[in-house]
Predict the structure.
Amino acid sequence: LLYLIVMSEEEYNSEEYIYYSARPEWKDVQPLPQDDGPNPVVRIAYTEKFKDVYGYMRAVLRSGEKSQRVLDLTTDAIDCNPANYTVWHYRRQVLQAINADLNEEMIFIADVILSEPKNYQVWYHRQKLVEWTEDPAKELSLTAEVLEEDGKNYHSWQHRQWIVQRYGLWDGELDFTDEMIKKDLRNNSAWNQRYFIVSNTTGFTDDVIERELQYVIPLVRKAPNNESTWNYLHGVLKDKRLSEQPLVRTLCDYLYNQHVPSSHLLSTMVEIYEEEAEKGNNESLQSALELCHKLATKVDPIRQQYWEYTSRRLTIAYGAESKGSSEDKTNPDP
Amino acid sequence: SIIIIMGTPVKDVQLPDNPAIKSLLLDKHASYVEAFEKNKDDYDYCMTEFLRISGIYWGLTAMDLMGQLHRMNKDEVLEFVQSCRHPSGGFSPAPNHDPHLLYTLSAVQILVLYDKLEILDVDSVVKFVTELQRPDGSFTGDKWGEVDTRFSFCAVATLALLNRLDAVNIDIIVKFILSCMNFDGGFGVTPGSESHAGQIYCCVGALAITGRLYEVKADQLGWWLCERQLPSGGLNGRPEKLPDVCYSWWVLASLSIIGRIHWIDK
């Protein structure tokens, strides 16, 4: 056997870490090794700490011991491998069994979240703690702190939605999305949150739609190539006809006259023309087809197949002899 | 990295002009997968114990696609799968871990791959899966209760592979999945959460398996999915994010299911 001593900086510097196998208070436990494989030719020493901790972790999972020392062991196990679902799961069982101080645990998990914000397990752990304590007081600030570092962290937004919905913390949430949008108007998650809040509070009434159009349209003008703002605009008008929205028509005319080469702009115009073609306006059909061609060849050639499909679909649906549902009649295959 | 296209910053990667690797190195990939399972002292191997059975499924599938499945140790794998079986009917990722839907699906998939479903107690697996369904049609991953559309997929896929979709009420499962459809035609983890390519795959897959694909707004979703393609050719998982090869799978598979894979520039 050849031993390669590779120590992580942390292990080299830390003289406090004592292997579990050397701790007298753990003498009563026989560590369980991982499933055996063939004898390794090279054993890498920086995994020794990992193997030590997990040897004891496995033993404890088998014996079912739930105690303070096991809680501390899970802390080390988490430190070695924060993605290990089984350890987090067991930690929760230990916390309950020993009636641990959940406030301390909230502080602990907040720290882990801040250092591992993309890890599923840490957020789920936090959620469970909130459920047990029914204390949502710190959740908005925790999620805001994570979003400060990474405005699109999916888990953070998800946790925030869960909190807001469960505890009715809708007040101020629209303002929060506004802050996030001001920081980065391309933040799709922030737009999604805005939609979520409106849907679950006032709903998209005519007044609210008007308000949201006034909100999003200037931002579309500001960044006409941004997918999120256009998607939000379309979402707000989901149950309406675009062609009947003067604000949208003005927006499109303005940007089109500025020759803004935005696929989202042209795509929206195609939709407006389609609505008009539906009513028998053949000029609109031709305009739509022209835009599809422009998109397929100049503005968005990477999605040529989609634009050619759309042309075919429009032609079949609204061309000279045809009436009826376009999606049923057309094969989207080339 | 920031690339400017027509005056607007686009989040994308910059590929090298002259890449060193110009073709898919299948032999090397096969050797890597074969070696991974053998090197039980490897750091990454140790770190991934909590998802071991899924790792095995991914490795076996890759080898099968490359025509190299025979290089894997079938008996060892089957023995390992058996060792992950839990009295509740579910499977854990490795011995001494708790059972979970994710790993139950992987176990069933491995057995299907090796045509060894007969070693299963199908009724007990079905029981494990159906007991994880909630009244609103959603599924939790395990008895402790995390709801996620991924688990809707795992549940219906597991049951379908065992030919036991009859064990559940499809309508309510579909109702929940559809409640996760967003204004952009995509799907998220739970109702209201942001559309994400991975979750879209799970939802579209589940709808396809349950024969309810017609509920998907195929043109709208297809467009959202093909919008994931960036100038570099790579795919992201949601708007304004960087491309990642995992999304090549989630997005292309979803588009394939709804018959619009050619909307991506090959």
